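Hi P.,

Sorry for the delay on this. The queue was packed all week, but I finally got your sequence through. Input first:
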Amino acid sequence: MTRGVERALHRVATANQGCRILVLGNGGSGKTSLASTLAAVYGLKLISVDALRWDDEWTQRSSEDVLVRLRAALASSRWVAEDGALRWLHVLVPPSDIILWLDADQRRCAFRVARRAFRRRLGTEPRERAKPEPWTLVLRHCRWCLRYNAERRPTYEEIQRANPARTLRLKKARSVQELLKALTTASSADGTPYGGE
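Then the structure:
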């Protein structure tokens, strides 16, 4: 399965007409790690909706502001975007050439979100911003992760049914790790990214 996903990604990423990859999943499912690796391997622009949504002080931007920033970022022909919310799917899904859905266990995701917050405070994991997330935001994020099966998974299933040819679903954390390893190995063997703007 992982090898098939890697081949599909490589085929899309090396196409002449552009490459637009969307990574969907719960918080803590590995979206950012996978999207960052894809961006580095294939020379794609990395778009994190969370980075557009929150400023450096962890203040949430307005929906209108995020939408303007997101549309501008998606204007590129070569990108990989990652998000876990439902609000922006109407903008993210239509232009995507391939959709990677990381369908991870919601309890494991909540644990990883909490662990990441502790590690960032200890300095053992890189921070996205100079300031760590407020604990109130971390707790809210963990609760959000635990509502994944009820609130977001059904929508992702609908996306897969509506777009079977371009949606790839990874159900196990091991599959994501294997894909990351395969992509990193391929990049190291080649020595350079496959493509770029």
